[in-house]
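Hello,

Our lab assistant flagged a job as stuck in the queue for most of the afternoon. It eventually completed. Since we weren't sure the result was trustworthy after the delay, we are filing this so someone can double-check. Below is the sequence as submitted and the structure that was eventually returned. Let us know if re-running is recommended.
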Amino acid sequence: MLIQTRVPVDITLPVGLTDINQAVGKMTKERIIKGEPILDERLHIDKKTTMAYVIPEGKRAVTIGVNEVSAVAAFIIPGDHVDVIVTFEERDKDYGNRKVYYDKHTTVVLQNILILGVGQNMEEVKSPAKEMVTSVTLAVSLKEAEKLILGDESGTIRLALRPAMDKTYSETGGTVREEIIIPKGKLEVYK
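-- returned structure --
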């Protein structure tokens, strides 16, 4: 929060800002304490800053690889929110003398995740021919980072673009193949 204060001319700092609009919308390079004059040298000149300055408090920037399908055909831009959905392939796991079968399944692992960057861009690129990006950077907590990285390394990730104002969360329980495909020889009885 900025507060404009009048100060006597004889104690005005030569490099201090004289108009509140010179500071509005700019990122600071370091912490400014309440009541302290704002010096031009402590502000970033351009709105564009490094990624470290745009990561929300309590979050980390984690980048994952994407392609045209997983990145919603390049419709995702910085500032959008997505859900992260992972598909895990079927596999068998040996536990000593027991073998456990894990069916192919898809589950929502994260919801309402902020997109910080697409490729090397931290803001929307307005060009007639968008290049296909190969990475997306998301703002996640450390716990969410663990889920995101495990999902990326263990399965196939897809990002689901959320409507602009949608902040809802849903419990889906995931989906296994048998829920959408009826195996041959299996009859379904409808009443």
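-- support follow-up --
The delay was a queue issue, not a problem with the job. The result is valid. Helices lie at 142-154. The chain has two domains: 1-49, 54-178.
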